[in-house]
Amino acid sequence: MGTTTLLGCCSFSWRCNQKIKPSDGHGNWISRARACCSDENISDDGLWKRRTALVCGVSLISSAVLGYSGGAGQGLAAVKQGLLAGRVPGLSEPDEQGWRTYHRPDEKSGGHGVGWSPIIPYSFSVPPQWEEVPVSIADLGGTEIDLRFANSKQGRLFVIVAPVLRFADNLGDDAKLELIGPPDKVISAFGPEVIGENVEGKVLSMDVSQHSGRTYYQFELEPPHVIITATAAGNRLYLFSVTANGLQWKRNYKDLKKIADSFRVV
Question: Which end of the chain, N or C, is less surrounded by CB atoms within 10 Å?
């Protein structure tokens, strides 16, 4: 990008006359590009002097990166706006055991900017050394994955937030998990989105609980080793999946179960 602008500067005069920065004491605007293209900065053989080319290139690249159209303030605002659409920090400070609580930031967009209405926040807790990792459209769950966390030695988790309209058109804007279906129906319908295959014969346990008036279903499957917690809020179904390989599962089951039990829509 910077190279194209640099070459274009001396090829097209209109680019060299862009007003970027006032450089004299009389309020006159002189662009960096124009200064670079002046005759005094060209050597006898018609080529740019090395220092001039270097300084000009750095100036143009800096302008492009900062989004120079109205000053550094606008450029920084554009950078901030770009951050809001992706990964926004949401972890608390560690407690006495080193566990941290993630609370979905209000500024965070949908998993891939699909244009959904605001998502009701959720929270969960993770042990030390668990960190957020990028969401990929190639992941199981596709564009409906809102968040992923992982620890290379313990396991990984992800959150699927799916519109309930995918499953029924009569649930309204305040869906209840009970209206979507009983536990066996929910895991049969949505389990494949989490593990990528039919769940028949893989469900080891099913549990139903209530927290702050909201119903949660929790399922433990094997193989693969995974705990899925499901609930509904607003017009969305939430699937919270905690998984690990066989060795990680054996060594860290207690912590993985604690992570799964901590999930709440708040």
Answer: N
